[in-house]
Amino acid sequence: MKWCEPRLLVPGVGSFPELHLPIQPRSKPPGKLPTKRESPYLDQVIKSLWDFHHCFSNVREHLRDTAIYSACIDERARSKIKCIHDGEPPCRSCFKSKRPECILSGPFETGRRQSSGTKPRESAPPTSAKLNVHRDSSVEPASPKPSINDIAAGKLTKDVVLGLSPQVLLVAVTTFTQKFPELAFNHAPTFSSHVKEDVTVWIKIAATLALCHRFLPVTVKDHIPSEDELAACSRESLQSIQSVTPSISAVQSLLIMSMYEWGAGNGYGAWMHSGMATRMMQSLDVMKPDRGSEVIETEIHNRTFWACFVMDRFIFCGRSQPLALPLDTMTIQLPIGEEDFAFGGVSHAGRPMESTGPFTVDEYYTVLVKGFEIWSKVLGLIISGGRRTPGMSQPENCPWVTGSPWKKLLDSVEEWRSQHSDRLRFPASGVAVHVSLGHGEKFAYVNLLYYVCILFLNREYIPFLPIQLPEPVGPIDPPLLEASAPPGWWHSRAKDLYNAAECITLIHQQLDELNAPLLTPFAAFCSFCAGSMNGYVTSFPQMNLNRSPNSAAHEELNFLHLEKFTALWKMGRGWAQTLKRVQTLRFHVIRDRARFIGKTRSDFVALYESIHDYAGVSPPIRAETELSANGASTSQLFDGNQTNDSKENAQEMRHNPQPRSSVLGELMPELNPEIFLTGDEIWNQAWPMWGDQQFGTFDEAELQFNYDQDLPTL
Q: Is 398 in contact with 489 (CB distance < 8 Å)?
């Protein structure tokens, strides 16, 4: 009987030759086992199979050495897809999916064998991400790589952060520079070199990614850890370096985390990080820079110092919280222009503090530094009592009198504004031009700062509920001013007030239309302030002599901006809820004017103070009773005995029974009007100013630093 001898070709691998194995065809009819005459052939088959087995063992050993034989157990269980890794977990799929456990089923060595004659060994058993098996003790273990478990547990390492691609870092730094112009210390052209030189710069990178995470495109977010993981890593790392030698990058990291904590609703964390940054910066003695240093390095130090100055005032509370960097004790020069900073050349030395301009957008950081100094004084006056401060009603302290506290601040604001070039002023210069040149956010920030100062100062003296007033006037509730204002003075103040609210709204609107929204804490606070005044003049148009026909539409835009902001930052919740309550109050005032005649600011203390809220505070409830301060019980507001005027107003409102803004209605639950106005604790949600709530006392039992919680549902 003749046998066919087709042969099976086994391709060679590496240095192993290909094999030609004889196989029996399927068509061979069944029969007896080969006879002795066929035994030579059997011997050949057995030998060939043994050779194949030996070859396969060598191939397996070769694959083990190149770390491509093993596979993630999870990947093999789910599908037949290729498992890509470097010989130790996590594999690429687990890393991208942030899967907490990655266990490989095969060997994990990445080194070559010492000699080709090494005896093949058995495969290593499965191991966890923390286990590293080595074939030979004489081979030096490879450096362990960051594990997906470290990321999942919030234990990011230096290697993870520094292992991010340069493209990701560039996007993060660019986003940070655009969205946070108040922290202008990054020198983008040399940033990558600083990453390699500074041993603590990786903490700054982690903090930057945490702060900018909400603004980064999805394609970038897919390649970096989550915001919470980055923030946790930054906090832990900063704690570990507080007692070591200070560095500029450590100071910058603290400032970035201060901004992050502020937006996240952790006021105490923001204050502490800012304070530590200031103390560390002072220890570097940058107020006496080394004249031999390069221009760029000197300016980075200089700008980092001014960033501490700005951040100190950015989170300023106004009362018990002292400023860490008083301006009158500083001798450092103002920042140089943006172009000089970028190119490393100095067309002129940094301007001294008394410089009067004119300043262009190239020198916006100098403008911001001087502006935030004025803003801290404005905020300090208002939240420390404003016109209710003892003695402020006396004739010599009336706001129109030269030398009075209010007039001094207004003069300071206008003098600062006079130092701005025409191209730096809105609306004389539009937002679109500056966005096209790449510095729209900087231009917007300067103008927002100016208009919010104007708004705060002029809002201080307007009546709270001007139901029966035909035109703009001064305060109608105690303490009353002891002198009369010059003719037309209150009309001018009203014009400035509502123009400021309109300009803030238009700046945000134009930025949104140009796809360059400014959704940062201070910008959102400005929108909150504008919304309160746009709503006010919508309900009481006579308080601006009917010069604000678009106020209702602008109020809607303010709500839209706060809605977007609240989706990104926790601190916006308090502002949104305050506007909702103010809007609901106005709704009932218009519907039933007679019931609110004679009501003043003292009847709504907590609500009035919440309009000045600089931090989006969501504080605890206080046990006070409002709406009964002037003898009117809360139950009388809904006793059904309405006057003819109130009935007519109610009929007018019947076709629009809800507050005007549908946006805020979607943003927050609808309020029950009777509960809203009659509950003893509702109007007294403790929404005091940042100074009152956060730093009014350092009594441990009363101190409330965090403001990221929602208010009780009404």
A: no
At CB < 8 A and 24+ separation, what contacts does 11-15 make?
Answer: 13/59, 13/62, 14/59, 14/62, 15/116
More confident residue, 93 or 291: 93
Give CA–CA dist 587/144, Å, rounded: 64
Of all residues in the chain, the percent with pLDDT exceeding 70 is 59
CA 592 and chain centroid, separation:
42
Please give the Cα distance from 207 to 231 (Å, whole number). 6
Domain boundaries, the chain: 7-65, 154-346, 356-534+545-553, 570-695
Helices (H), 460-611: 489-513, 521-539, 551-568, 572-591, 593-596, 605-611
Q: Cα–Cα distance between 397 and 392 in angstroms, integer? A: 5
Tens of pLDDT, residue by residue over 511-535, are 999 999 999 999 999 999 999 999 9
Q: Does 126 score more than 50 pLDDT? A: no
pLDDT, tens digit, for every residue of 533-569? 999 999 999 999 999 999 999 999 999 999 999 999 9
Q: At 666, give phi and psi (nearest 5°).
A: -75, -30
Which H or E element spans position 10? strand 7-10
Average pLDDT over residues 166-171: 89
3-state secondary structure of 438: coil
**pLDDT for the residue numbered 327:** 83
Secondary structure of residue 439 in the 3-state scheme: coil
Radius of gyration over every alpha carbon of the chain, rounded to an integer in angstroms = 35
What burial letters (b/e) apply to 605-614, b meaning 16+ CB within 10 Å?
bbbbbbbbbb
Mean pLDDT on 7-20: 47
Beta-bridge mates of residue 7: 22
Q: Two tokens at 204?
A: 């700054």
Contact criterion met (CB below 8 Å) for 460 and 386: yes
Q: Tell which phi-psi region holds residue 572, choosing left (phi > 0), alpha (psi between -120 and 50) or beta.
A: alpha
In terms of C-beta distances under 8 Å and separation of at least 24 residues, what long-range contacts does 511-515 make, across chains too? 511/431, 511/435, 511/440, 511/441, 511/444, 512/561, 514/431, 514/432, 514/435, 514/440
Residue 100 DSSP one-character state: S
Provide the pLDDT for residue 92: 66
> What is the C-alpha to C-alpha distance for residues 312 and 325, in angstroms, rounded to an integer?
7
Reference 498, options 559, 550, 574, 429; nearest CA is 550
State the Cα angle at 184 between 183 and 187, rounded to 5°.
135
Tokens representing 239 are 């704690």
d(CA 429, CA 567): 31
166 upstream amide cis, omega within 30 of 0: no
Of 131-135, 326-330, 487-491, least confident by mean pLDDT is: 131-135
Distance of CA 429 to the CA centre of its chain: 28
Q: Token pair of 145, please?
A: 């790589």
DSSP string of 23-53, one letter each residue: ---TTPPP-PPP-GGGHHHHHHHHHHHHHHH
Q: Between 101 and 275, where is the model more confident?
A: 275
**Tally of CB atoms within 10 A around 403:** 9
**Tokens 């001087």, located at residue:** 370
Q: Stretch 97-112: mean pLDDT, rounded? A: 56
* 3-class state of residue 485 by DSSP: coil
Amino acid at 541: P
Please check the confidence at residue 84 and state whether its pLDDT lies above 80. no
